[in-house]
Amino acid sequence: MANEIKNEGEGSKTADKNYRETATDFAKRTDTLQAGLQAEREVESKKSEFDEAEKAGKSHSAGDLKKDLDGSDFKKK
Question: What is the pLDDT confidence band of residue 59, given thresholds at 50, 70 and 90?
Fold first, then answer.
């Protein structure tokens, strides 16, 4: 298979390189200070939505789910 992707394991150098190139390109093309200020305004204008989402996320954790505790969602070999 010519397009087969090699598994580099944890800490993929290819993924790291792609991320750094993309982030650098974004920073060069974008007024990042202005983008940050815009994001801050959006968060403040929708604060109640963000607070609700945070509350929902904190209301349970993966460890609270029975299948996470007993491993029933994993295939046994």
Answer: confident
What whole-number distance in Å separates Cα of residue 4 and Cα of residue 41? 43
**Whole-number Cα distances in Å, 3 to 6, 10, 39, 71:** 9, 21, 38, 35
d(CA 30, CA 24): 10
Spans of all domains in the chain:
31-72
Summarize the confidence of residues 23-34 as an average pLDDT. Answer: 93
Give the helix/strand (H/E) hosting 57.
helix 47-58
* Residue 67: per-residue pLDDT: 72
Cα-based angle 61, 64, 69 (whole degrees, multiple of 5): 125
Q: Quickly list H helices, 10-46.
A: 13-29, 32-45
Spatial contact of 43 and 50, defined as CB atoms under 8 Å apart: yes
